[in-house]
Amino acid sequence: MNPIAHQPDSLPAPGPGALAQSEALVAQLRAELEAAGGWLPFDRYMERALYSPGFGYYSGGARKFGLRGDDGSDFVTAPELSPLFAPTLARPVAEALQASGTRNLLEFGAGTGKLAAGLVNALDELGVEFDSYSIVDLSGELRERQRETIEAAAPALAAKVRWLDALPEQFEGVVIGNEVLDAMPVKLFANLGGVWHERGVVWRDEAFAFEDRPVTRSGPADHALLAEIETFGENYVTETHDAARAFIRTVCTMLTRGAAFFIDYGFPQHEYYHAQRAQGTLMCHYRHRAHGDPFLYPGLQDITAHVEFTGIAEAGVEAGADLLGFTSQARFLMNAGITDALSSIDPTDTTRFLPAANAVQKLLSEAEMGELFKVIAFSRGLTETLKAFSSGDRSHTL
Ligand SMILES: C[S@@+](CC[C@H](N)C(=O)[O-])C[C@H]1O[C@@H](n2cnc3c(N)ncnc32)[C@H](O)[C@@H]1O
Question: With a 6 A CB cut-off, is 113 part of the ligand 1 pocket?
Fold first, then answer.
């Protein structure tokens, strides 16, 4: 059963080309569903809806990032929102490069390329030399857009930026990922009357719909985690994050010296599996409207879930990395000097200062991104902590 009614009438309709692309993805998904016996685990549906070559949301032609729905975009991220985000993040990145004696950077899921361009320019201004800035993205389609952004905004440094098709086995340097973990497929589970069910996808009445199947001991669920989750009430729905944990294990195994920073929305485990989130955190974004229906226009809308940071921390430590810090985005950016960066803009120059101040307010405000977004960082071979985690570190809450 799909708990959220389709609301296509209240959302702007896609154009005919986009609809045809979505219909082609639906046909592929239906064929896969049929071959699998009529039921697909939700993480597989999400993976195909986001990353099916040529048709998925990130691997197809959707505009994705932007400030407003009328430009065809669906959501805005911190590097798009504020030009001060990248130079502020550059300070802890520079500190980690210098403390580890490394000279390479690697960004996952680089979006439009704005963060990469801002980081390389800011490192240059800080006088921090580096050899390479590599980008790894599941979205090949974004590569051209990233190259254009970087060539326009950082022409002197663009030659140091490269795109990798596969991860290196070992990496010494600093890894960055902004809003990458929330874009990884999640498994859905529903506790119905005390019994855990895995929520999967079926095709019924000419549409995709949810169908719950009791979890069996031999099934692929994380039984230890499910057993620990307190289910507040009769119908508790939540997610588990196998793909994000596996990704962090891979990154922290690859990182032989340096640090890795991941910025995203989410909570530590005790806040994640909580009465306030009895319907889980799955969320879809279409033209800057958030809603809960993952079956609307497959391939044309973003599907995300909040990050469960305790599992992320455990995965990194299991892989042998040290937890360098965990704090709110507001605390991290303030420790890293975002307010100094803002005060370097002349406040009487209102056309520059006011939008910059508004954007910084969004990044820091508790009611917007400041508290919901967190920064988690891992390290190898670093003995000192970074200024960005010098106060307000919440690693003990994980
Ligand atoms: C929400 S977007 C964020 C983009 C950008 N970092 C920003 O902040 O604007 C998520 C990005 O992560 C990428 N991504 C997801 N899983 C990935 C993985 N395993 N490796 C590399 N990129 C991945 C997606 O392709 C997408 O470009």
Answer: no
Tell me how far the alpha carbon of residue 188 lies from the centroid of ligand 1, in angstroms: 21
> Mutation test of ligand 1: which of 46, 51, 137 has the most ligand atoms closer than 8 Å to its C-beta?
137
Q: Are 267 and 311 in contact (CB under 8 A)?
A: no
Percent of the chain with pLDDT over 70: 94
**Can you give the length of the chain in residues?**
398
Fold of 78-181+244-271+306-397: Rossmann fold (3.40.50)
More confident residue, 290 or 313: 313
Nearest CA to ligand 1 atom 1: 179
CA of 182 from ligand 1 middle (Å) equals 9
CA distances from 112 to 53, 118, 206, 227, 290 (A): 19, 11, 36, 41, 21
CB 196 less than 6 A from any atom of ligand 1:
no
Which pLDDT tens digit goes with each residue over 5-51?
344 557 788 888 889 999 999 999 999 999 999 999 999 999 999 99
Beta-bridged to residue 112, according to DSSP, are none
Enumerate residues 6+ apart whose C-beta is below 8 A from 152.
Answer: 117
The number of the ligand 1 atom at minimal distance from the alpha carbon of 80 is 9
pLDDT digits (tens, 9 = 90+) for 173-185: 999 999 999 999 9
- For the entire predicted model, the pTM comes to 0.94
Phi-psi region of 208 (alpha: psi -120 to 50; beta: other; left: phi over 0): beta
pLDDT (0 to 100) of residue 193: 87
Pocket flag, ligand 1, residue 176 (CB < 6 Å): no
Please provide the average confidence, as pLDDT, over all residues in the chain: 92
CA distance 272 to 238: 9
Domain ranges within the chain, ordered by starting residue: 78-181+244-271+306-397
Asked if 75 contacts 105 with a C-beta cutoff of 8 angstroms, the reply is no
Is residue 77 in contact with ligand 1, taking CB distance under 6 Å?
yes
- Name the band, by pLDDT with cuts 50, 70 and 90, for residue 350: very high
